[in-house]
Amino acid sequence: MNLPLPWLDTSDALPNVDSAWADDSPAPGLLAAGADLSVTRLLEAYSHGIFPWFSQGQPVLWWAPNPRMVLDIHRFRLHRSLRKTLQRFRADPRCEIRVDHGFQRVIIACATTSREGQNGTWIVPSMVDAYTALHGAGHAHCIETWMDGELAGGLYCVSIGKAVFGESMFARRTDASKIALAALVALCGAQGAGWVDCQQNTAHLASLGAQEIDRTTFVGKVALARNQAPLHWHFEHLYWDWLLSRPPQSA
Predict the structure, then answer these.
(1) Residue 93 belongs to some domain of the structure
(2) pTM exceeds cut of 0.90
(3) Partners of 157 in the β-ladder
(4) What value does the CA radius of gyration of the chain take, rounded to a whole number of Å?
(5) Do 41 and 116 share a domain, yes or no?
(6) Which residues of the chain have pLDDT under 50?
(7) Do 171 and 75 belong together in one domain?
(8) How many other C-beta atoms can be found within 10 angstroms of the C-beta atom of residue 17?
(9) How confident is the model at residue 121, as a pLDDT?
(10) For position 59, which CATH number holds?
(11) Residue 72: phi, psi to the nearest 5?
(12) What is the pLDDT of residue 149?
């Protein structure tokens, strides 16, 4: 199957998401190739529901999958076991959440942490450099789980207005990445952001409450949220109240 794929120069705009390859193609959601990973380009992409994803040795590839996996923060599944973990974490003076304390350290940890069933990483050096620059511009952030004075896990994400796009997580201790995600949900909930983009469907994300929505709906949500007042990227201890005050769930 030979399908047209736009090749972009650095001056070209990204195509409309509706032109992405369909489900019956070799790479559903693939939109274009080429261009660059500048801050301006990344902001253009995320503002329209597009993200880069490619492996070492490939050109930059741009994606807009349909459907899109999104976590509505009000549907975040705070299972009883995770609730107990968060309550212990919150009460332990040796544990804390830090925001943007060491962005490059977090993204490199996401890139180098081994994952079952996965060889290599899409967080190649050019991606590390690009998102570190985006962090410097105030649009990429990290949530860090610290235990006993050590970085135990975390995640990084992109934020434009109140649109939040999750990228990757890592854990060096049990539940450390779940704690970071819960902290992100609490931060979003306390400040009025309603969802976190998870890009693609995984069983892990589904177990935490993420659901698929169609691309048109997702792009509409991005268009509304990107122009809202931006989040303040710090974590206050009382943010846990927003999350832990919700009714418990089974499992």
Answers:
(1) yes
(2) yes
(3) 141, 166
(4) 18
(5) no
(6) none
(7) yes
(8) 21
(9) 78
(10) 3.30.70.3550
(11) -70, 120
(12) 96
